[in-house]
């Protein structure tokens, strides 16, 4: 009987795994063929998020030159490097373009075809355009993967879950808001993938409260403005008359920072320096465990500061008062207070200093006398951010971005560290393209978009939704519609995906944050006793090994690529041993 591997999820993560299987098979697998079953109702490669059937107005969030599905020499892995084109090289477009998601989907489908074609001739891939409902079977025996609308299960020697982002049940607060909306005839759109949301209930000219100022909000903004016939004439938005009026706020009260709009030049900061494999190993080896804020964050903060000041001192020495070698020595030896004093004396301009707390809470202690004053104030904030993020004189910001990528690559080894870091990373490193923020400014000037403030609180009372913020004391916004502009939380317990819930009921372990626990080495699913399942793997954002994304910027180490390679090699070794046993 030919060995069988079932991969649930044929999007970019499943495709990346197949690419690594193809790369490693010549070394590790000489068995009697192999059947790979891909289970996904959406097209292989692009999957749900990058499918062709979505608005062409929706862009990627990265420059085309910063998107690759292929490994390079910076990925710390055992398997061979197999390089390939970035999105811009494949599509033949300007590398600085923010391509639309349809084009990215086409790239991913091409990568999938190439990966399948690179498999040994004895490997056959079968696509099942269905949903997987559950996985059963004994720990030491073949697994059964039950599919929607299929009376018999797929039999698998191994199963890999590459489910990607998942829909979720409403939490208690969302459930209460949804029920209130139902009773009072209001509109409540819970966390969702904006491209999948039905926005038709948001009427022209009607006020709509929007909670969330990240990438889901940007998609919402686009679909409710240009998507309804509006257009831009330079820096002016010309409404179609079909737009609602969006009142947006969030915890920070500001949009994510703009994508950086210049290229790196010169020497890169030598990373990791203060937070690398040795520090991660020490944290993992602590008998009493570790606390993120107490034990991890100081190392992260020092690493990001090192990246920032390395760039400032080596490229802009005229803005410093000390030689880099002297600064570096004192920085390395200093505690937090000593480093702060060092920076104050060596970097005269506060704008050249890295203040992560201020970046994370830009409106803390800031109050405006009226909503109109705040509209002007936040437009000034966004204009300043756009200017800075497109000016190479502030290139230490790009060094911090590289530091964030380096840090993320280490943090994935620690497992579930809570949700704060992932939001902070996205806010600083994964914000919208600059043109989107310029559109936001135009919409604000046109009155189609209004800012509510930080720590936005929403209540449901007197038959309406009300929003307030301490940024504008006393100001209240009322609306009959509320949109939660963010992705669903990727928790196992609230996942709408029946397979994950069944896996949990079958003994799979969850972290305190509700993520599926997996072995950090190869992604095997752990049970509640900490034992890795010999035949089940999981990769992606619903696990405690989640990474910034299934694809990445070239030559930045790609944590997802490293995980894919480790999982692929574990899969091939297992199947090769199985084939040897069968032949003996």
SSE class: alpha/beta
Largest sheet: 6 strands, mixed
Q: What is the CATH domain class of the largest domain?
A: Alpha Beta
Strand order of the largest sheet: 3-2-1-7-19-18
Number of domains: 3
- CATH architecture designation of the largest domain: 3-Layer(bba) Sandwich
The coarse silhouette is globular
CATH structural fold name of the largest domain:
FAD/NAD(P)-binding domain
Provide the CATH superfamily of the largest domain: FAD/NAD(P)-binding domain
Ends apart, CA distance between termini: 14 Å
Region (Disordered): 537-559
Pfam family, one: NAD_binding_9
Protein name: FAD/NAD(P)-binding protein
Organism: Streptomyces guryensis
Your description of this structure?
This protein has 584 residues and is α/β, with parallel strands linked by helices. It has 3 domains: 4-167 and 490-583, FAD/NAD(P)-binding domain, CATH 3.50.50; 172-256 and 432-484, FAD/NAD(P)-binding domain, CATH 3.50.50; 277-429, no CATH class. 36% of the residues lie in helices and 15% in strands. It contains 16 helices and 19 strands. The protein has helices at 12-28, 87-91, 101-117, 172-184, 215-223, 277-284, 292-315, 324-333, 336-346, 356-360, 371-389, 396-411, 420-429, 434-445, 498-505, 559-583; strands spanning 4-8, 34-39, 123-128, 132-136, 143-147, 154-156, 158-161, 187-189, 207-211, 231-233, 236-238, 245-249, 449-453, 457-461, 464-468, 477-479, 481-484, 524-526, 532-538. The protein has a 6-stranded mixed sheet with strand order 3-2-1-7-19-18, covered by helices on one side. Strands 8-17-9-12-13 form a 5-stranded parallel sheet. Strands 4-5-6 form a 3-stranded antiparallel sheet. The two termini are 14 Å apart. The model has no long low-confidence stretch (mean pLDDT 95). Residues 537-559 are annotated as: Disordered.
């Amino acid at each position: 009987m030919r060995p069988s591997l079932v991969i649930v999820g044929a999007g970019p993560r499943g495709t990346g795994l197949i690419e690594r299987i193809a790369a490693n098979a010549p070394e590790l697998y000489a068995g009697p063929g192999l059947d790979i079953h891909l289970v996904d109702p959406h097209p292989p490669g692009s999957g749900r998020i990058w499918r062709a059937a979505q608005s062409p107005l929706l862009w990627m969030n990265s420059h085309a030159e910063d998107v690759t599905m292929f490994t390079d020499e910076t990925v710390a892995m055992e398997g061979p490097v197999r390089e390939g084109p970035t999105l811009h090289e494949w599509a033949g477009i300007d590398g600085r373009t923010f391509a639309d998601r349809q084009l990215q989907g086409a790239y991913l489908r091409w990568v999938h075809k190439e990966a399948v074609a690179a498999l040994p001739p004895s490997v056959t891939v079968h696509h099942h355009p269905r949903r997987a409902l559950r996985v059963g079977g004994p720990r030491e025996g073949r697994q059964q993967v039950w599919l929607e609308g299929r009376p018999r299960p797929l039999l698998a020697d191994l199963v890999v879950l590459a489910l990607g982002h998942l829909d979720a049940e409403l939490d208690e607060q969302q459930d209460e808001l949804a029920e209130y909306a139902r009773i009072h005839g209001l509109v409540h759109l819970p966390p969702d993938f904006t491209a999948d949301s039905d926005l038709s209930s948001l009427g022209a000219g009607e006020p709509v409260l929007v909670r969330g100022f990240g990438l889901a909000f940007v998609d919402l903004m686009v679909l409710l403005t240009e998507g309804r016939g509006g257009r831009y004439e330079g820096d002016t938005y010309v409404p179609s008359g079909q737009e609602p009026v969006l009142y947006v706020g969030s915890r920070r009260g500001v949009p994510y920072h703009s994508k950086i709009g210049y290229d790196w030049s010169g020497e890169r900061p030598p990373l990791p320096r203060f937070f690398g494999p040795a520090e991660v190993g020490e944290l993992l080896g602590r008998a009493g465990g570790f606390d993120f804020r107490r034990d991890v964050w100081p190392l992260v903060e020092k690493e990001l500061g090192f990246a920032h000041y390395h760039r400032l001192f080596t490229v802009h020495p005229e803005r410093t008062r000390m030689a880099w070698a002297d600064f570096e020595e004192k920085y390395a030896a200093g505690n937090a207070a000593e480093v702060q004093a060092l920076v104050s004396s060596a970097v005269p301009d506060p704008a050249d200093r890295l203040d992560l707390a201020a970046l994370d809470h830009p409106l803390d202690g800031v109050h405006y006398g009226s909503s109109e004053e705040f509209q002007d104030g936040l437009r000034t904030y966004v204009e300043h951010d756009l200017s800075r993020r497109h000016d190479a004189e502030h290139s230490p910001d790009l060094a911090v971005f590289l530091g964030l990528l380096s840090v993320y690559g280490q943090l994935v080894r620690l497992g579930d560290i809570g949700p704060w870091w992932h939001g902070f990373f996205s806010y600083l490193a994964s914000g919208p393209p600059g043109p989107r923020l310029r559109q936001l400014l135009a919409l604000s000037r046109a009155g189609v978009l209004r800012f509510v403030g930080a720590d936005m609180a929403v209540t449901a009372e007197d038959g309406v939704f009300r929003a307030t913020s301490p940024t504008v004391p006393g100001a209240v916004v009322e609306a009959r519609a509320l949109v939660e502009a963010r992705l669903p939380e990727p928790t196992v317990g609230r996942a709408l995906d029946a397979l994950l819930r069944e896996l949990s009921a079958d003994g799979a372990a969850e972290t305190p944050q509700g993520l599926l626990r997996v072995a950090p080495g190869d992604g095997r699913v752990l049970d509640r006793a900490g034992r890795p399942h010999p035949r089940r793997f999981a990769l992606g954002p619903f696990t405690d090994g989640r990474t910034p994304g299934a694809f990445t910027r070239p030559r930045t180490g790609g944590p997802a690529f490293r995980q894919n390679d480790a999982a692929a090699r574990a899969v091939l070794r297992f199947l090769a041993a199985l084939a040897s046993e069968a032949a003996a």
